[in-house]
Amino acid sequence: MPNIKSAKKRVKVINTKTMRNKAVKSDLKTALKKADAAVAENAENKEEVVRAAIKKVDMACTKGIMHKNAAARKVSQLAKKLG
User: Fold this and answer.
1) pTM for the complete prediction?
2) Environment class of residue 71 by beta-carbon count within 10 Å: exposed (0-12), middle (13-18) or buried (19+)?
3) Contact assessment for residue 23 and residue 34, using Cβ atoms and an 8 Å cutoff
4) Which of 1, 31, 34, 42 would be 53's cystine partner, CB 3.0–4.6 Å?
5) Residue 67 pLDDT > 90, yes or no?
6) CA dihedral 57, 60, 61, 67 (to 10 degrees)
7) How far apart are CA 21 and CA 17, in angstroms?
8) Is 9 helix (H, G, I), strand (E, B) or coil?
């Protein structure tokens, strides 16, 4: 356990950021799974679901949770599956 005040604050801040990042990652994974399932089942709303997944990927990239090249690769893969 940290003894210095600034170190104690860093522990709090890191925990807060970790929880936020974990929530965004979980939401992203769920959206990607839904998009894959919609494309595999050839659902009538597959374009809408894929568009939502691409938006989640872009948001994760913007927040620094996902590298920009990894995000571009995911978007490309989703577009390829859709088209």
Assistant:
1) 0.85
2) buried
3) no
4) 31
5) yes
6) -100
7) 6
8) helix
Confidence of residue 1 (pLDDT cuts 50, 70, 90): confident
pLDDT at position 83 is 79
Q: Say how far apart CA 35 and CA 24 lie, in whole Å.
A: 16
**Cα–Cα distance for residue pair 53/20, rounded to 1 Å:** 18
**What single letter denotes the amino acid at residue 48?**
E
Domain extents in the chain: 44-83
Query: Which residues make Cβ contacts (< 8 Å) with residue 72, sequence separation at least 6?
Result: none
**Distance (Å, rounded) from C-alpha 32 to C-alpha 51?**
10
Please name the residue that has the structure tokens 């938006």. 55
The residue written with tokens 């090249």 in the block is 69
